[in-house]
Write a structure and sequence with these properties.
By secondary structure, the protein is of the alpha+beta class. The protein has one domain. It has three helices and ten strands. The strands form four sheets. Strands 3-6-9-10 form a four-stranded antiparallel sheet, covered by helices on one side. It has a two-stranded antiparallel ribbon with strand order 1-2. A hairpin with a 2-residue loop joins strand 1 and strand 2 (7-9). The mean pLDDT is 85.
Length: 122
């Protein structure tokens, strides 16, 4: 049992953070994360997920691949519709995401630019 922002959470087993990893992904087949979760590239509803043009450009510049990885200290992203880059830590805290959930997110980057955090969080 733990408390986060005045709420109590009970777990049978404490959620394990995503282990350190970095892997190339061409999105043509599902990707398997180190904890066994599977990612598939599917079209997102309008206004959600990655911008298709931005993704296509990043994949082309990255030799046909994007990179899946876990978090790194100091990660920053420019949310859709925002003019400035923001720290992932502050954005996740503002969304009131518990720390143990933040540690299980995967990150998508191409050419050193962070494109997305988790399942369409930003």
């Amino acid at each position: 049992v733990t408390r986060y922002r005045d709420d109590l959470y009970a777990f049978d087993k404490w959620p394990k953070p995503l282990p350190d990893f970095e892997q190339c992904w061409d999105m043509s087949t599902p990707a398997v994360l180190p904890d066994g979760r599977i990612l598939e590239a599917k079209p997102a509803p309008p206004g959600r997920g990655l911008d298709p043009d931005k993704l296509a450009k990043a994949v082309q510049e990255g030799g046909g691949f994007i990179t899946l990885r876990n978090r790194r200290a100091g990660d920053r992203i420019r949310p859709v519709g925002d003019r400035h880059h923001r720290s992932i830590k502050n954005l996740l805290q503002a969304r009131q995401m518990p720390p143990w959930e933040r540690e299980r997110l995967w990150y998508i980057e191409a050419n050193g630019a962070l494109l997305q955090v988790g399942p369409d969080i930003f």
